[in-house]
Amino acid sequence: MSEQQTNVHVTEEVKVVIPDTVASPGLLWARTTFTRPGGTPYSGPDLYAFALFRAPQGSTSWGR
Description:
Blueprint: E1 13-17, E2 31-35
Antiparallel strand pairs: 1-2
């Protein structure tokens, strides 16, 4: 059996914008853009992303 599939999880570029600092209590946000090969951005049901934030000292929460 021989099978060839196209990888649909390919990006040409990933841009991530986050604030330089966040004061506690404050909001930590991220703005991202994932671009397909060819230059058009992924959007709607074609886009799925997961983000995990970790403080330099290892904290995982703001104490809430």
